[in-house]
Amino acid sequence: MVAKKREREAPAKDKLAAIGIEAICERVADCETLQSIADSAGVSKGTLIVWLDAYADQYARAREAQADKLAEDILAIADDGANDTYMTENGPATNHDVIARSRLRVDARKWLAGKMAPKKYGDKTTIAGDAENPLAILTMDQIAANPKSRLKV
Questions:
Q1: Would you give the DSSP letter of residue 21?
Q2: In the prediction, which pLDDT does 26 show?
Q3: Model's pTM, two decimal places?
């Protein structure tokens, strides 16, 4: 049974090696899904993921580039207002469906870029301490003593 598994894995790894890690990472950086890459290579997505483990540094750089591409795509989508309006017999009208779809596309890319590169594209969370030491951990009494605090102890 183990021999059959190795026989199946070897051709799959050979297929991936023939494509090359550079080409696969370029496709990843261009936001192509792993499933799509695996399908075009004729291997399973799981096999592709296992194969990519051997090239963790290159794959990580490709994922960073992918997050950057998503950020660029956000700007392109946001700047493209070509189909936001259309002409009717009464004059121009707003195409709310196109605007909603663009918003969805932007939000999806923002979320994904934030998850892929949280330091670069994630939401910034700040923890405020006191003025002298902004990273200080405050007690509940100190928080309640702040006039801006809604916490009542």
A1: H
A2: 98
A3: 0.70
d(CA 104, CA 87): 24
Q: What is the distance between the alpha carbons of residues 120 and 106, in angstroms, rounded to a whole number?
A: 17
122: confidence class by pLDDT, cuts 50, 70, 90: confident
How many whole angstroms separate alpha carbon 8 and alpha carbon 46? 13
* Residue matched to tokens 């090696």: 17
Strand partners, 87: 92
Distance CA 121, CA 111 (A): 9
Contact residues for 114 (Cβ-Cβ < 8 A; gap 6+): 121, 122, 123
DSSP codes, 53-119: HTTHHHHHHHHHHHHHHHHHHHHHHHH--TTSEEEETTEEEE-HHHHHHHHHHHHHHHHHHHHHSHH
pLDDT digit string, tens, across residues 75-103: 999 999 999 999 999 999 999 999 999 99
pLDDT tens-digit readout, 11-53: 888 999 999 999 999 999 999 999 999 999 999 999 999 999 9
Cβ-based neighbour number of residue 14 at 10 Å: 10
In angstroms, rounded to a whole number, what is the distance separating the alpha carbons of residues 112 and 115? Answer: 5
